[in-house]
Specification:
The protein is of the alpha+beta class. It is built from 13 helices and 10 strands. The chain folds into 2 domains: 100 residues, Phosphorylase Kinase, domain 1, CATH 3.30.200; 238 residues, Aminoglycoside phosphotransferase (APH), C-terminal lobe (Aminoglycoside 3'-phosphotransferase, Chain: A, domain 2), CATH 3.90.1200.10. Bound molecules: 2-acetamido-2-deoxy-1-O-phosphono-alpha-D-glucopyranose (GN1) and magnesium ion.
Length: 353
Amino acid sequence: MDAHVLAAYGLEPQRFDVRPFGCGHINKTYLATDRAGGAHYILQRINTHVFKQPQVIARNHRMAGDYLARTQPDYLFPRIIPTIAGDDLYRDGVSYWRLTPYVPYTVALNEATSPKQAFEAAKQFGRLARLTAEIDLSDFQPTIPNFHNLALRFESFERVVDSADEARKQKAAGLIEAMLAGASIVETYVALVAEGGLPDRLMHHDAKINNVLLHQNTFEGVCVIDLDTLMPGKIFSDVGDMVRTYVCPVSEEERDVTRVVVRDAYFAALMDGYLSEMRGVLTALERELLFYAGELMIYMQALRFLTDYLAGDVYYPVTYETHNLDRARNQWALLTELRRQSQLLRKIIRECL
Ligand code: GN1
Ligand code: MG
């Protein structure tokens, strides 16, 4: 990272230590630490192949921040820090940068290791949704159009199955079959959207466990981070990604699928945490979809990884040849486990409601 990026924010480059931070796939994230102690910042370079209009990210983030500062001044929401020129993004040739405060004494976990962590993390996403339940969404735009549109994701998958490299197709044959056979999830999605009964809400759209900061000692929830897909959406996006990433003891990177299991106590804790904020806000239809949300988002993530494997790894960074295929297999195993336990998990949801 070049020194002039820090300088654009009025930070003296020679005072700061800058290191890569976190494990996001899409943007490049750095932690900038003042060597003399004191300030820490998160500096992010936005991936403009994925986010074609970075100004939309800044705008949504700014509008949500302004609204929350006005209506909930005590709520911790990491707002954008403007450049000294007063801009929300710093443009450096073809790159766009965004600066936010780093919250000290916190951790982001890649896997939950206690139900309390799942409860606390889910509560943070629930709180964000509750506090913005009344926000006027008409000025918010999608930062990635059709991001969680399962019908379109499925179409892209079908297209790539037709055009993919034969060797990759062979390797993935069993999973391709399974994904095609699992398309009833897509039909349910299409029917739901056609009915039009689901309200639009300001959703985070990447409610992974590592996108919440917890207090490093007590694991109490502190705030949500990674606000680049904050945009109008449906309830299943955030609930589904929480199920996808909180209930399993291993992350989507795990290659040994026998370790991919669903921990019902974590499922209960996350539902309880989310509903402790959103119980009174959800509509009847949304309540009915709490289990389906997990199926939908896990299936979609498997589809996205498999599509990328068949397309030749053009979206998710990989470190070895079958990386995306292994991720897809991991997600498929998770979906299978979730469905195997569906009766118990649905009962848990009823009890939490
Ligand atoms: C990407 O970049 P990161 O790691 O925050 C992706 C999410 C996926 C996730 C899977 C913009 O998120 O949708 O769920 O990887 N973000 C984008 O780990 O595609
Ligand atoms: Mg993200």
